[in-house]
Design a protein that fits this description.
Chain lengths: 373, 373
Amino acid sequence: MANEPSMESASAVGRALDVLFADGKSIRFEDCWLRDHCRCSSCYHSDTFQRAHHILDIPDATILSFEFDKKKIDVVWSDNHTSTYTAEFLSKFDYKTWKESRRLKPILWHGSIHDKISVVPVEKFLHSVEGAKHVFQSLLDYGVALVEGVGVSLEATEIVCKALGGVQHTIFGGMWQFTTRADHADTAYTNLPLAAHNDNTYFTEAAGLQILHCLEHKNGTGGETILVDGFHGALELKKENPEDFKFLSSFNLEAEYIEDGHHHTYSAPVIRIDNESQELVQIRFNVYDRAPMAFKNSEECRSYYRSLRNLSKYYQDPNNQWRFKLKPGTVMIMDNFRVLHGRTGFSGSRVLCGSYVARSDWLDKARALGLIQ
Amino acid sequence: MANEPSMESASAVGRALDVLFADGKSIRFEDCWLRDHCRCSSCYHSDTFQRAHHILDIPDATILSFEFDKKKIDVVWSDNHTSTYTAEFLSKFDYKTWKESRRLKPILWHGSIHDKISVVPVEKFLHSVEGAKHVFQSLLDYGVALVEGVGVSLEATEIVCKALGGVQHTIFGGMWQFTTRADHADTAYTNLPLAAHNDNTYFTEAAGLQILHCLEHKNGTGGETILVDGFHGALELKKENPEDFKFLSSFNLEAEYIEDGHHHTYSAPVIRIDNESQELVQIRFNVYDRAPMAFKNSEECRSYYRSLRNLSKYYQDPNNQWRFKLKPGTVMIMDNFRVLHGRTGFSGSRVLCGSYVARSDWLDKARALGLIQ
């Protein structure tokens, strides 16, 4: 490293230490924080990255004395314990840098993104760090990635799903495969168009990724995939109809899924924003799975319809969508917390397979690759 | 039914219909709501319980005329569509009753609850609706249930886990079995005491249920299970230290889990309350898995330590805990969103197996049994 963290000065201020770093950063460390972060072998398991003490067993000690040089600070505590903190360790806890390092930075989009997202050959994805990084970076940036050259089978698709973080098991199974026929009845699995939506709005946590692989489309036309950036839509709504954004980010909309022996339901805002940072966390948009709801009053009821329609208008506008034809051999991966998916109507025989991957599991992979903190 | 819903009167008020029911309830139905909830075969798939129209394709029509009797209302719309609504259907949407029907009603507890929770023989749980209801009602009420007479093996335990909603697959596997061998980078894989905690605070969604079955404890003592009601603790904190409750329900505490190839991390409040209802949703308390964090200022840092310590004091107080010895054959099930678990230190050879069940999956089971809406 060109600039290894180095300390210029350290001084006691009340129960805290103020540390000035060579790069100009100044950080205040409270004594309770310092004692909690003692990295000696009796306070910290360096193999499990866990503290050895319960928070109630950490002595409420004060700093008796300290000594520092550019590279470390030695602290002697009022209970005679001693702790050493390196400049490298301490410098990580500059609030602004630390907070910023944890922020996801999605690149908003609308329309076609075929020249922006990663399209990675399956062997490269599975067997090289570089390939894996391309796929996960594309998911972090755009919420979409494609893996090509995959064997046209459920088994070959499963290998890709496992490398994305592992197959999530839901009431729909682990890996699933579905066929639709032109003469099918009027159920959810039809050849009718499906407007862009998020899956699993009725689960307490929706699937993190959705993986789709078209294994076959014979004797017919249509069935184009539709993708749209849910985050971009929400932020456009915020600009144009701020009261709708406010409603959809605070009102708990109930979604439901009912079949014999199963009844999933969950109530949460359509637009989930982080309480602290106010950043977008999740879009939970599915007009089909809305549960019938009672409303507090006329205003709430009318706000529900007005705001859902206004957000729908964005998502339904072809100018905002990316439409393309999935072909056997190319696996599509999308971030179901952000990107909405749908399809145009079709004729002929179409077979798709795929699975879900839990959000925690794919972010774990991205983090292990060093792409996010 | 003694009192089938019956309508006394219906009148147009602006674009809405006011309906007075025989039991004295009065409900206002906006025209947009009514049209969205038309249950005719072209508007609604009664087999999938889904609407047939996208929200943008529902005509923004007004009510031309309506006729009612005690049992139903027929509406003619400005686009000549007609809809029929039964009194039974409409009466469900009284706001207060509807909202209340969706509220979970945990029974708070502290100390031993061995005479309160359900202890159900495995055959009864697996093969009778009554047995299943006992187990799930106990989980809804107290966050704990026991199933006894289970075969002392991972395979027999798995059958119980599947009946609870299905085995959740995480980085720890599906069904897991552990001794004091350090298979994972975690204090759980030692013989040290483990203070009461929630699992998976570092996942975007923690496990819904945790299932534990002690298959063997030979040549040693100790290893008592510790359970404590996280909700009761949080509400006691709210009474005694309201500023701590406020801090822990709004501050995003970061938790982490690190092992070779894996890095899970998640930031959310320790006390999760519903934005709308202000009711407790989840406790996310694990002092071991706290990530090192930077703070905005000294006050935030000191609030963090003060509030965590005050909440810890409640959870660590033996008067608030239920302690008992798990025996082979009895499977313990707890709601990991609410109940904290731990153990006392032990000697000898101890083998446990178990798994997680996703929250959506066990609530689905409870809902299919008619225990919750």
